[in-house]
Amino acid sequence: MVDSGAAYNPAQWAGLFAEETSASAALTGLLFVAISINLSRIVSMPVLIARSAKALSTLVGVLLAATFCLVPGQPRTLLGGELMLVGILIWIMITSSERASSRDNPYMRRGQRILHVILAQGSSLPMIVGGVSLILGVGGGLYWLVAGMIISFIAALLDAWVLLIEIHR
Q1: In terms of residue numbers, what domain contains 158?
Q2: Tell me, what's the pLDDT at 103?
Q3: What is the pTM of this model?
Q4: Mean per-residue pLDDT over the chain, rounded
Q5: How many domains does the chain have?
Q6: Which end of the chain is less congested by CB atoms within 10 angstroms, N or C?
Q7: Which residues of the chain have pLDDT under 50?
């Protein structure tokens, strides 16, 4: 059962959100290293440029959401609005990058495309739902962010793997 008090009280989540900001910032740095190591190969293939943008957008979404949740004393509805706005912007960026990275990509099979769409949507939509839930005060609140952040890390790590390792195959 969801603790309704904790679901809508970001102060009780400060430890988790502090760790999420650290993890997303560290992974973003590692992704920049992976991109810079293989920059000439990445820029020569538009699908890899889009995949790089998707991975960075995913991690930036986690970083921004967790950072907003760490701001002390802000009203629940304001935080909900911030999460919705960030979620919508990240959704647009991730969805457009996902389309560009998978469309006409000869290296992706149908099952891989489906997995990437699921991961892309699962990275941003929980943030939007969590924001709406905070505003309304029902529906799970900040618990939605946990699912979105976990999926975001998985999606970004898969993209980073391709940009660092699979690019050499």
Answers
A1: 4-168
A2: 74
A3: 0.89
A4: 90
A5: 1
A6: N
A7: none
